[in-house]
Amino acid sequence: MNAGRSRNPRGRRSGVVAAVAGAVVLTTLTAPPAQAAPTGLVVSNVVVNNGKPIVVGTKEEKEPPVTFQVSLPPGLSTSKPFAYTAKPFLYRGANLPKIPDNDSLRMGMYTCYPVNDWNERCEGTLFIDPPYDLDSNGDATTWKVGLTLRLWKPDGRLKAEEYKKAPGSVQLKRWGKATVNASPEPVKKGKKLTVTGKLTRADWVKHTYSGVAGSVKLQFRKKGSSAYTTVKTVKSNSAGALKTTVTASVDGYWRWTHNGSSTTGPATSTADFVDVR
């Protein structure tokens, strides 16, 4: 089993190079500039977050799963796991960053399991700490997959290193939130009920949640039922404010739900119960 570590929860995107696998942890931090030479390592079938978008808030650390396969060149064997390291990372833009550790989303813990003498199946997680890894709302975009490939000498010194692009991509989105309030409570049957709320999303610059304009569904669930139905669709204003009126008919629960967008994750408020008399 080939265990690897690249987790650096306090390393800024402009800062510290993260540590890598096993016996070469210390030599990685002191290694000379890498040789831009082919390693012969081939990484394939990289799948990030099970193929789904990664939705990130303002403070909570995220560890999306990553799986991939590694094929070894002649002369290497899975019985010598510390002779090489192969790690996917995420980057944005057309070109690979010159120093991927400085402007990328990197692997955290990962483990590789030999399939045979020249192939391994690997699984692990990315590590995303929003206050340190995301410094622009423009980071809510499509991130591409890059690879850091390294060969190591028996004494732990770096032999060769290369950065390559890999097929695949993943969408990074800003976490969305919604609130709701229905009033008056209780309300007489046949009278107007005002439903308000707010739609917000993570702001990675201010590290808070800011209002956002979007299309939001007002949904209702009758007391005793388990299913919500959409009553109407309302657009929030630029501050995220939501407001509409409906006619009260029966006891039940009201909520707002937003399907999300290319940059914002979905959001559903908690339900507000209204007693109709």
| Low-pLDDT ranges | 1-35
What does the oligomeric state look like here? Answer: single chain
Shape descriptor reads: elongated
Q: What does the largest sheet look like?
A: 5 strands, antiparallel
Average per-residue pLDDT, rounded, comes to 87
- Rg (C-alpha, Å): 25 Å
> What fraction strand?
over 45%
**Sheet with most strands: strand arrangement:** 1-6-7-4-2
Specify the structural class: mainly beta
Helix coverage percent: under 10%
Query: How far is the first residue's CA from the last residue's CA?
Result: 66 Å
Q: Strand-and-helix sequence, N→C?
A: EHEEEEEEHEEEEEEEEEEE
What's the number of helices? 2
Number of strands: 18
Structure description:
The protein has 277 residues and is mainly β. Helix content is 4%, strand content 48%. It has two helices and 18 strands. It has helices spanning 25-30, 130-133; strands spanning 2-5, 42-48, 54-56, 65-71, 84-91, 107-116, 119-126, 142-152, 158-174, 176-183, 192-203, 208-211, 215-222, 229-235, 241-247, 252-258, 267-268, 272-274. It has a five-stranded antiparallel beta sheet with strand order 1-6-7-4-2, with no helix packed on it. Strands 13, 14, 16, 17 and 18 form a five-stranded antiparallel beta sheet that branches. Strands 3-9-8-5 form a four-stranded mixed beta sheet, with no helix packed on it. The longest helix is centred in the N-terminal third of the chain and has 6 residues, at 25-30.
